[in-house]
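Please fill in the sequence for the structure shown.

STRUCTURE ENCODING:
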């Protein structure tokens, strides 16, 4: 299907069971593969990015058993990758590409890692520089600083702290954190510059702890990583995806709702659960339980001016909510959008203007002045799942919206549009 026409949605109300978190799923799958013992992973995300990770683990010789994502059994390799040389195609899955680069560079072997054309435009130079600083042998097969990569056996030395920049992508630090316990001795990582997207690093640290690797940290600058490897916790459950929750909660706030999402709540380890703070600042009424969140609107939304560096994915939802606010909204400190599945700052500005908004695009911010009335629009999605899901909310503005390439949501939420339709009320 090349496009999907969304008719105007009068309102939304109901309950949504969320798919598993992508960020948690791919971290857990990799940690389980590296651990000693078998791990049963329950309720992992079943979408393109996790299928990419599972396929890569299979090519690396990791034994897995599963009929579906509800229960995946992974026999860990105790840090010794069985296949010492292969080519891996990793699509546009940053949560697979970055950690696997570090893990394979540290463990040794002859590997080629590649992806879709957009992945070859997403920077990885800071991670490669960090790995080279400890003796890893990595060559660029295209443009320096970007995939594809060729990895060769090398002697890793951890006599000095490992430096890594933190201001482009937190996935570089996450990759090092996950890989260095395989080195056989303790190590220190020192972050250079401001670390962005800290909640995603907190997810990494939390899950490493579940697999027996306790990382000590001094603020957000110095991380002390044990070298004792990983041990399976036996069984681990994947939370619902907090980023995906944002679309339904925003819909409830825009249209009145109420909408309740199930699978993520007050006890979540995901940073994007803090999207509820955005909802409340914009005037929504929010309630939470251990494993659920509910949002309902209380009239026209208030304009927002906020630093959203800590929730970069859910911040896209806030940008579309700005169309329904009582004045201009400013989203700040979101430069990381430019190195995601597309240049999200440029893409978001372009598509918001199609709906009638006045948009100012800065190097690391977006200012959105809503129109008096939305206008019907055809939204380009740039092969970016979050563009497609965010802009579906525009149909709540009383206009028809055409979403080009709706199948891009398969990256994290293949059934998104069916689920949205299931809670939609039409006039």
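FILLED IN BY: designer on duty
SEQUENCE:
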């Amino acid at each position: 299907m090349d496009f999907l026409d969304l008719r105007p949605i009068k309102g939304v109300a109901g309950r949504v069971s969320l798919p598993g978190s992508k960020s948690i799923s791919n971290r857990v799958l990799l940690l389980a593969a590296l651990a000693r013992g078998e791990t049963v992973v329950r309720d992992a995300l079943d979408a393109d990015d996790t299928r990419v990770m599972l396929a890569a683990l299979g090519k690396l010789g990791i034994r897995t058993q599963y009929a579906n994502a509800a229960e995946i059994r992974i026999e860990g390799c105790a840090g010794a990758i069985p296949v010492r040389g292969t080519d891996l195609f990793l699509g546009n899955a940053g949560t697979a590409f970055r950690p696997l680069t570090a893990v394979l560079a540290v463990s040794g072997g002859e590997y080629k890692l590649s992806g879709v054309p957009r992945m070859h435009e997403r920077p990885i130079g800071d991670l490669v520089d960090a790995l080279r600083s400890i003796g890893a042998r990595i060559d660029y097969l295209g443009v320096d600083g970007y995939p594809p990569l060729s990895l060769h056996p090398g002697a890793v030395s951890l006599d000095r702290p490992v430096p890594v920049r933190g201001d482009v992508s937190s996935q570089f630090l996450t990759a090092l954190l996950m890989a260095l316990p395989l080195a056989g001795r303790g190590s220190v990582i020192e972050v250079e510059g401001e670390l962005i997207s800290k909640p995603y690093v907190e997810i990494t640290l939390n899950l490493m702890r579940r697999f027996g690797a306790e990382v000590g940290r001094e603020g957000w600058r110095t991380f002390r990583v044990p070298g004792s490897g990983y041990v399976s916790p036996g069984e681990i459950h994947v939370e619902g995806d907090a980023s995906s929750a944002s679309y339904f909660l925003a819909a409830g706030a825009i249209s009145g709702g109420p909408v309740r999402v199930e699978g993520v709540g007050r006890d979540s380890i995901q940073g994007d659960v803090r999207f509820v703070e955005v909802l409340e600042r914009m005037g929504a009424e929010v309630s939470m339980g251990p494993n659920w969140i509910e949002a309902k609107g209380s009239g026209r939304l208030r304009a927002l001016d906020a630093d959203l560096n800590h929730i970069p994915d859910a911040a896209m939802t806030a940008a579309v909510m700005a169309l329904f606010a009582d004045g201009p909204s400013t989203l700040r400190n979101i430069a990381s959008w430019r190195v995601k599945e597309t240049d999200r700052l440029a893409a978001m500005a372009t598509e918001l203007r199609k709906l009638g908004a006045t948009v100012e695009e800065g190097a690391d911010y977006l200012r959105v002045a809503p129109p008096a009335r939305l206008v019907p629009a055809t939204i380009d999605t740039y092969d970016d799942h979050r563009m497609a899901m965010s802009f579906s909310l525009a149909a709540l503005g009383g206009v028809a919206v055409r979403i080009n390439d709706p199948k891009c949501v398969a990256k994290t939420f293949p059934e998104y549009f069916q689920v949205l339709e299931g809670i939609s009320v039409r006039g």
